[in-house]
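USER: Note each token:
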Amino acid sequence: MNMKEKNFISVITYVHNNSDRYLSFLRIIGRVLDEHFDNYEIILVNDASSTECMAQIKQNIKQEKYKFPITVVNLKDFQGIESGMLAGENYAIGDFIYEFDTLNVDYDIDMIMKVYYRALEGFDIVSAVPKNTNVGFSYIFYKIYNTSSKQGKIYHETFRILSRRAWNRILSINSSIPYRKAIYNNCGLKTDYYFYDNKKNTLKYSEDEKKHRFSLAIDSFIIFTNIFEKISFIFSCSFAIFALLVLGYTFFIYFGKSRPVEGWAPIMGFLSMAFFGVFSLMTITLKYLSLILKTILTQQDYLIESTERIIMEDK
């Protein structure tokens, strides 16, 4: 009797010159999918990997003769994991979608099914979160983000599963998704987390990935937190106060016993009021820009060069 799950499963994977890690991951995820599901697909997002990297992956796939279909989405130029995963999502047709942010399998394999079964209980987004993470840039980023964001905490997630309803909701909220975890955390649907024990993460990123992640962190701070808004507000208010103090000093000199150079007091008074007005307007403008960034995201984040389907030969 066939006891496999009937839901169609899409798996989004991301590759950027890490063929060895991907091939190892593919064997694991393929075994889990084949054991538990009747219908599934794997979408490989190739983010400008080298020709050698993709050739090795394709050759291995044909040699192993996997049972599941693999769709390759080739991005034009390096665009980073956020844009890459978004491109993969838009090709997924599953009732549930797995997103693997990293190919580093530092969890028990049954964790893959645990998040799925948890999703069946009514949670639209379920994530696997390692308890032990590196104390470095990632730690600093999450610490600052969670302190300055009002949208709730985000975590250093390894992978997650989304229901089709969750993905449809997210697309209806934003036409562009600059940082998936922040959007997922604020979509209004039920989410849950599985925290698991893991070994120390020794995963290393390429220079392109490091630059992209740093840029992503800055963009996320600007869009999803108010940290830069607060900094700008403090600077604007400080300069406005300074302008008022100069104005006060100007009146003190003008009406005091001292006699400044003729014309000095009116000029300083005018400049002080002008700068006060400028910095006040800057404060208001920064607030409006912050609201615009948080509500209007219209630019498509990825550019696809081509797609291809790898056909398996019969055994």
Observations:
- DSSP finds ten helices and eight strands in the chain.
- The chain has a mean pLDDT of 80.
